[in-house]
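Recap quiz, item 2
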Amino acid sequence: MGEAIVITSGKGGVGKTTTTANLGTALAMQGKKVCLVDTDIGLRNLDVILGLENRIIYDLVDVAEGRCKIQQALVRDKRFDDLLWLLPAAQSSDKTAVNGEQMKTIVNELKKDFDYILIDCPAGIEQGFQNAIAGADQSIVVTTPEHSAVRDADRIIGLLEKEPMDPPRLIINRIRTNMVKDGNMLDVNDVTNILAIELLGIVADDDEVLKASYHGEPVVLNPNTSAGIAYRNIARRILGESVPLQQLDNEPNGFFSRIKKFFGARV
Amino acid sequence: MPRTQKVTIKGTKDGLSLFLSDTSSFHEVLEELDAKLAIAEKFKDETHLLNVRIHTGNRLLTDQQIEEIEHVVSKERNLQISSIEADVISKDEADRLVKETQVHVVNKIIRSGQVFRVQGDLLLIGDVNPGGKVIASGNIFIMGVLKGVAHAGYPENREAVIVGAQMRPGQLRIADQISRAPDDEEPVQNETECAYINQENEIIIDRLQVLRRIRPELNRFIEGGE
């Protein structure tokens, strides 16, 4: 049985879909069989980021309504043999076309065949969000170091904590080290202080991410980029490895210094 | 006539005290009360209203019984009931009292969009994040950082206080009073502070140490021991 992980944020535009695509790719690179599920019905674009748009025949709504089997709707990413698949969202319906029960059934079906199911959640806290979390066992909250994104992440975490799943984990996306240094952006510490959940990883703001999505291939494929390495590390943490957090250039001491100090005092 | 009195009348300097027996039936008590007041001629000479305090012992009167007593006492006489006291309270009342004097210990983070309410005092072991809100009918004590909204003394206890290990609230509310953070950022205090309504009817944030002076009634330990 596989694990279903929903990737969510509350606010739009913080990088949920990019994160889903890259984590899915990174897990596939580790030899795991991964299915990405796009639940952003009506505004799908996970397929675009992966460069799979042209291969879509059936979609999530078709599966939910029984017009096709799940296997018929799955789109294979040829770069990874049989490891990376996409269940695309419908583009012509809206979020109410699917309900939580149907999602649960679909995700449970997928869990039989895949190691990981990554569910890309739409922005907002309405039906689309409820659908996306319905079948999930775990959740990852993506935020950027901005007050508005952190506020929405906080709201989402509050909602996720009420669900019968593991406590949510956090990815802080698009950190700009030079702006943090100048005191014009929240730093990792500020964000984790407010949200107070386990930090799964940080991803620096990297032009390569945009470049990669322009070419329809996830940045994680390029091991020479900071974001690529970050996503690979996050994938390894999801697999249970303990990988130290990337040291961002201009960050003195990181954010564990306080805890370290306490440990030190004990010896 | 049985020897035990169902109604005892005592004069005090504030007026009259009526002791109603709790072992006789209410009907009998009411009859005797009527009879006794009727023969007590001297009340009728009084020109001003006399206050009457009624003690019912271990009997809890219903609203209707209270009405009947009021009727008997006030008819044709210059008497006025100032209070009705019993040695017992109803279960509802007791439950309410317990709730209101309880300190609720809560170990969680109140996140954006969440509203946490308690009857009584709240001891929060955690933060109130921006956009989050805690409401208590009593006092609020926060061991974490208060960044959202805290409303103590809801709805009308103006004596309630808010204590925070770190006070950085968007808004503070006590009873019907509301205050908000100043627009220009103040240096962040890393000290425990308290908020209360002062004599000018404003909510102010002050050093924790002043609480001992301005709200001595916050003490709630049982006297004794050292």
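The radius of gyration of chain A is 18 Å.
The interface with chain B takes residues 151-152, 154-155, 157-159, 161, 194, 196 of chain A (CB under 8 Å).
End of item.
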